[in-house]
From TrEMBL:
Span of the signal peptide: 1-15
Superkingdom as given in the UniProt entry: Eukaryota
Protein name (Swiss-Prot/TrEMBL): Ionotropic glutamate receptor C-terminal domain-containing protein
Family listed: Belongs to the glutamate-gated ion channel (TC 1.A.10.1) family.
GO BP of this protein: detection of stimulus involved in sensory perception
Source organism of this protein record: Zootermopsis nevadensis
Any one GO CC term of the record: plasma membrane
Topology with respect to the bilayer: Multi-pass membrane protein
């Protein structure tokens, strides 16, 4: 009798041990069936189970959850289609440190048993989702299955709360699985139904991203689905019912052009963005999905114009931070596709190629007063001066040989010969021609030479008065580093010179910070004592902003690109709009619309920033008095020297006459 009693007791204990698994058998079969249907073979499957235990029901909760988890693992391993990993809440070692990183993981979340503390359940689910996001944040390809135990405690508000928690991480493809019947006995029979719930966002303009309702997608009954419906239909369509597509951006050259608008109820203007390549692209994307556009102001940043990241408290400001934490759907302002950004956000297809270059002040026109010196090179001027004095000496010596009495007194004196040769050089007639045949022949050769020389001089002199040419400009990076120009650019570009090369070290040692791109460009273009770094799009903006009196740009690009990059938009990891937006951008690129829009914007902004006025240069050249002031300056100087020489001659003659009277008074009187 005692033996029979002992056997019955052992059988009851064993039955109690298997009870949690038996009563949730239909729930397990339904979960395995969903996994088999929707998770592709070979893709990792992560099973998340809580290890927190309620103090009032410790053993029952722990056993029920563990037995359910164990049997689900057993059923999944029998299928042999996926690598299956299990992650407990209190696991201290990172999942990626144990298993190789493989994309497109799918997740099954088994919640702890529900008794009365719903807040603790929600907290546990939130913790589980957060741990799964640490494995692969915002996995757009994976699916989530949330298994809720104890159907009698599950209500509609609890399921809505579960969806809301998952939507905080932009998880959309979620199915909540729960039993639909209350169990009177300890073991569930085959008639137990299992409900499968989901939700759809972007259904109503006022509740686009708020979980307000749930949808019963299908039911599991008698080992099969009742409707056999698609549990993960396409939820992002081309009609999102005028829901807002929130964008975070700042003014950025011709990519994002800001305009101030005033609201009817506010006197302060607000910044709006209606033009620019990326703004046009953004409006096109919103139109493609029947969404409205909405801009937000990014959280101000300090060191980096696109956003400052703090690893200590996991904060990110700027447009990157808005995308990372879901404050915006898309972020753009000439953002570069790079590894650091993509650690926090996802990048769309790149739609524009850009790069960084050094920019210096363009060569300025030479002063017109220097055109006289520039007419000939230094060697030509030197040869001309030497030739002039050589001709003076030769003429003077010929006039004195063999008989100086045969030549006039002007050519027998060195000063007279100097004056005659100089007059011919200046295309001025001499007072008296030489008398001897040999001297006349040599003098004619000098006249012909001077005529040819002055013709060339006048041609060049006139052309240089019209266009004096440009001064020397820094032509490459080596010449820039050898010059005394200040190197100034925005702090965000410091990473371009982070390599331990000699050139980068020299650049950083000479770098001076400036308050923004416009300040750097203004100093470089107007003052000309600095060089700055800009990307192609910023240059396209400032080259029309800083121009000279003829409308030519004051900024010039040095050859040799510092670094090239691709411009893209950024979105939060896992944002369900990512793939549809990417498809629209790709189609726009394939249609060639980006290049077309960019050419229109550049031309439009060129005329906007430089409207035509009466002073606008015209296609032909008008030779005005302003171009001749140098010639008149030389004329005035020449006349002044001539007048001075005339006065000196008068004084010399007066002194000579006075001396003659003192020496020969009688002779002078008789004369």
């Amino acid at each position: 009798m005692k033996l029979v009693t002992l056997l019955l007791f052992v059988a009851q204990v064993m039955a109690q041990a298997n009870l949690p698994t038996a009563k949730h058998r239909q729930l397990l079969l339904c979960t395995v069936s969903v996994i088999r249907r929707y998770i592709a073979e070979g893709h990792p499957l992560v099973l998340s189970a809580p290890d927190e235990v309620f103090p009032w029901d410790e053993m029952n909760t722990l056993d029920e959850t563990r037995n359910l988890t164990s049997e689900l693992l057993e059923d999944l391993h029998k299928v042999e289609r996926w690598p299956v990993y299990i992650l407990y809440e209190r696991t201290t070692v990172s999942f990626e440190e144990i298993y190789a990183s493989r994309k497109y993981k799918s997740y099954v979340i088994i919640t702890q048993n529900i008794r009365s503390d719903i807040n603790s359940l929600i907290k546990c689910i939130s913790s589980q989702v957060r741990r799964l996001q640490e494995i692969e944040a915002g996995n757009p390809e994976g699916v989530y299955l949330v298994v809720l135990l104890n159907a009698g405690e599950v209500d509609r508000e609890m399921i809505i709360k579960v969806f809301s928690i998952l939507w905080e991480w932009k998880v959309l493809d979620v199915i909540v699985i729960t039993e639909s019947l209350s169990r009177q006995s300890g073991i569930t029979d085959l008639k137990t139904k299992v409900d499968l719930f989901s939700w759809f966002h972007f259904q109503y303009p006022r509740h686009c991203t708020h979980v307000t309702d749930i949808v019963l997608m299908d039911q599991w009954e008698n080992g099969a689905f009742v409707k056999n419906a698609d549990l993960f239909p396409k939820k992002i369509t081309r009609n999102l019912n005028q829901c807002p597509l929130v964008a975070s951006t700042i003014s950025w050259g011709d990519l994002v052009i800001a305009s101030n608008e005033s609201d009817s109820g506010s006197t302060e203007p607000r910044v709006a963005y209606k033009d620019g390549l990326e703004v046009i692209l953004y409006h096109t994307i919103a139109e493609a999905f029947n969404m409205t556009t909405a801009f937000i102001d990014p959280i101000p940043s300090h060191d980096n114009i696109w956003g400052d990241f703090s690893s200590a408290d996991n904060t990110y400001t700027g447009v990157i931070g808005d995308a990372k934490f879901g404050r915006s759907n898309v972020s753009f302002c000439g953002l570069a596709k790079n590894f650091f950004f993509e650690m926090h956000v996802d990048s769309t297809h790149s739609y524009l190629e850009s790069g960084f270059n050094w920019y210096v002040q363009c060569a300025r026109p030479r002063p017109r007063w220097r055109v006289f010196v520039r007419t000939f090179t230094l060697s030509v001027w030197a040869a001309l001066i030497v030739s002039f004095f050589a001709v003076v000496i030769v003429v003077w010596r010929i006039a004195k040989f063999p008989d100086e009495r045969q030549e006039t007194a002007q050519y027998r004196s060195f000063v007279g010969t100097f004056q005659a040769v100089l007059a011919v050089l200046l295309n001025i007639g001499v007072s008296r021609m030489p008398l001897t045949l040999f001297l006349r022949g040599f003098f004619c050769v000098w006249i012909w030479s001077c005529f040819a020389l002055t013709t060339v001089f006048q041609t060049y002199f006139t052309s240089f008065l019209v266009d004096p040419g440009l001064e020397h400009q820094v032509s490459d990076v080596e010449e820039l580093l050898a010059s005394d120009l200040v190197l100034t650019f925005d702090n965000g570009y410091l990473d371009l010179f982070k390599y331990e090369e000699e050139r980068e070290k020299q650049i950083i040692s000479r770098w001076i910070s400036c308050p923004g791109f416009e300040a750097c460009s203004r100093r470089t273009a107007t003052i000309g004592d600095a060089a700055t770094v800009l990307d192609f799009q910023e240059f396209d903006y400032y080259k029309h902003k800083f121009v000279d009196e003829n409308g030519d740009s004051l900024l010039c690009r040095l050859p040799g690109k510092i670094s090239g990059y691709l411009i893209t938009m950024f979105m939060q990891k896992g944002n369900p709009l990512f793939r549809p937006v990417n498809d629209v951008i790709l189609r726009i690129m394939e249609a060639g619309l980006v290049n077309f829009w960019w050419s229109l914007i550049v031309e439009r902004q060129k005329f906007t920033r430089n409207p035509e006025t009466e002073d606008t240069p015209i296609t032909f050249f008008v030779f005005s008095m302003s171009h001749l002031y140098v010639a008149f300056t030389f004329l005035v100087v020449g006349c002044g020297l001539s007048f001075l020489v005339f006065i000196l001659e008068l004084l010399c003659n007066f002194v000579h006459i006075t001396k003659s009277r003192n020496i020969y008074p009688a002779e002078v009187t008789a004369y």
